[in-house]
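Re: [help] complex structure
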Amino acid sequence: MTLTATSAPAVRASTPHRKPGARLMPRLLSRTAVNGVLALAMLYTVMPLLWLLMAATKNMRDLFGTNGFTFGRTFDLGPNLAHLFAADDGIYLRWLGNTALYAVGGAFIATTLCVAAGYAFDKLSFPLKEKIFGLILLGVLVPASAMALPIYLLASKAGIVNTFWGVFLPSLVFPFGVYLARVFSAAYVPAEVIEATRVDGAGDLRTFVSIGLPMLRTAFVTIFLFQFTGIWNSFFLPLVMLTDQHLYPLNLGLYTWQTTSLNQGHPEDYLLAITGSLVAVVPLVIAFVVLQRYWKAGMTTGAVK
Amino acid sequence: MKPGRLRISALLASAVVSLPALAACGGTDSGAAGAKPGPDVITFRSFVKASDVVTAAFNKTHKDFQVKWENVPSGGDYYTKLASSVKAGNVPDVAIVEYNQLPDVVSQGELEDLTETAGPVVAKDFPPQVQQLVNLGGKTWGIPRDVAPLVFFYRKDFFDKHKLEPAKTWDDYTNLLEEVKKADPKARGGIFATADPGVVAALSWQGGGRWYGTEGQSWKVTIDDEPSKKVAAYWNDLVLKSLVGTYNSTSDDAFFQAVQKGEVVSYLCANWCAGGLQSTVPDQKGKWAIAPMPSLDGRPASAMLGGSAFTVPKGAKHPEQALEFIKWITTDPEGMKAWLSSGTSSMMPAAPALLPATGAFKTDFFAGQDIFSVVSKAYESVPAGWTWGPSAGVTGTTISDSLGKVASGEAKLADVLTSAQQATVADFKSRGLSVAQ
Amino acid sequence: MATRPLRRQGRTAALLIGPFLLLFLTFSIAPLVYAAWLSLFTERSSGLGFGGVETFFTGLGNYGRALGDAAFRDSFLVIAAYVLLYIPVMIGGALVLALLLDSAMARAKRFFQLGLFLPHAVPGLIAAIIWVYLYTPGLSPVIDLLESAGVKWSFLSAGHALFSVVNISTWEWIGYNMVILYAALQAIPRDVLEAGTVDGASGLRIALRIKMPLIRPAIALNVLFTVIGALQLFTEPKVIYRASTEIGSSWSPSMYAMRAAFDNHDYGLAASASILLALLGAVLSFIVTRFSARRTQP
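Output below.
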């Protein structure tokens, strides 16, 4: 529904349109201004992360007593990490594992289902095709947060509230991914290739697995990243669905720690949410830096949210 | 671009390979661990301070079964979680419920009826005004742990330095607040908690208001009765004159920061504030003291802010052990000492026989003052006849959602009470409860 | 002869689409249908209310109650105010950054792009937690910085909550939107820009007169998506709720539905509020779809 015409950012940094010799001083000034504004904006986006990093290295006294953007009087990252992984019998690791399972596992299965369905909608003909596709598009339209309570209500009827499946199964459904996969299939898998395999007598399923799927690798990665981010960010659904801490994703666990930090009056508990956030963010930031080529490609081919 | 693409598929593949291993532990063992050999483990949800200590103490002295404590947020989030746990069939064996929330929780069918088992204990060990808080509709729903009378906390060093005295009447209190502000323009002698409707209720209670009552099988709701409105007007005035500081509650970061900086030199709170104060602001050891709170006519009067009972949620898997644990932490001297020796809990036992256990609470932070004698006198001065209604959710959120507006001058506290009155009556009626006019 | 491969195609299609469709019907359609059904009932007890509850059919009564509840209507007003503040700040900011980055003056473009995009790697909840700390007096270096500059600003007190929520959203999304707009700018054919330069137009003029109109569709799309995203507002206010004196328990529509369900135990009301929110979201998305379909059709 929303592919804009801004396909691949093919033209990288064009040659500067420079008029030789003319007006050197204003040019220098405006260059400083342009880069200055960009640097300021970057300060805004990076400073909170710097604060998180610094805060995780302090004890509670220094957290309140020293400048947020510098190190504290003592370097307590080690003790903080030790407390993080030991708290509540090491539940943090459990949350990490759960999140990996919900987000990586969920996004992987969801993407597989999306790509298979999107390919079928694009390349195969069958009865009621456009009607079914229309129904799926309807699913794209409903905002996710409006779905959380209805899913909870039905799940409580079905008895899967407060189970792993109550959060995992709903995350396998990604209607927008089907739409994306169909568009990708139309663009990346030439109809002639499919025709040729048909003439050779290959079955449709085999054609999909051996010809279609490899050609849809980019689609796979793009949809995967979308749904992975979606599940990682989801908070409302786990919040209403789960009451057992052992099933929590990181999001919910950190929220609980943040809201109970002062309950028992132990100063070291105060830093759990902070250190826990840092440990959760670091791999994500690294992944984003390493994989930047992929998310950029994904975002700009399907300029969507 | 090709090699990179391959690398990411490899990454995904390896992630997927590791899924089954994780799935094995992603099951639904809720910590109840019925399958494990050894003694049963029961679960215990509580947000009050020293819950961890009391659990450890119990586990040390009891071998027939063990208790696993689960930390939960206090306030509305907790009751949300309790409600959804009951709906999900995943309840702890023991859950804390504050007195003001109990009618709501009971009317939603979230608790086991303990009349047979806990009823006699409650009748034997607790005074009538406490019994009345856990006996609802002729049945017993929990065993009381503590009572929480309001007292006046103040920085003795600041008061001595500026020759100030704790106030006896509310008029004195207004003067005191002005004096504090004069002595130090940044300091305030009181606070207005914008996220805690319980404070408004307690102040109304002390001032002679009665928010709920019953007439036969009908509720009588009078949240905006005259005494409550008078109290509301008084505090509204203090807020608008900026004589009191505005904070969310007495347990949030901003409040403790202000205490640390000496911007809050006195405030009204229940006795349980003492534990939080001394564990969060340890630097001010020896500087604090406690006095009775001001009253209308100078005669002792207080009211309860909080106080809680322990209950067995509907569908609990180990009700018998749950009750044994509850009895230990509410009526056994050893259990009571465990709460108080932690140094983080300064609760006042609801069972009068256990008052000596308060000796376990070290009072260095209050320069050795016998704070519990002040607290127990305050408790004796709580006016009788207050009951809570089954609308903690609606009444509480209607009030707390507007307290921010009171603080900014956009709303009048008395009007907030009136809208809480209307919302509560409307809620009762829509739920089919009988309401007497 | 032609029907056989077609039938075979149908079977393959069923195999490829079936699993998705099954999950889709179970976890997208069925919950909505069930919520719509539940929204027609209400629970009632009697007397003092300690004797359990019974369920009654109420027709559209819950919808009437939701729409008649000022708190529910206010939550949409909050969203409206949020959108009015957020869109100009966010889209304007993203646009300025994208134009600056696209200008010939900018250096280290990749570095800036990555740095500006970085917050998007942080999950919304963690972003909210970080910012709540940065909003907390005594803990926040930001407040100290402002104070040393002579500005006294309390992020958590009355009147400032909307700004504080908008700031968190902006922090999370400004880089994302900038990257999209930047890509749109990069896709502008170079000869169009060359023509402008030859005419002697300055960088600023080129940006405003040539580039802006060309990427207007991308901007419009961003605006509309941001509006729909705003309807979902939940995580940020939920996290700030405990610290702010202004944000109430039903500040956004999602928070209202959650409060109705779990604090007030009014599942009929919660279901009807969710259905209304879903409907509004669907209508808005439908408009977006129509709009963008018209824009992107060749």
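Chain C touches chain A through 118 residues (CB under 8 Å).
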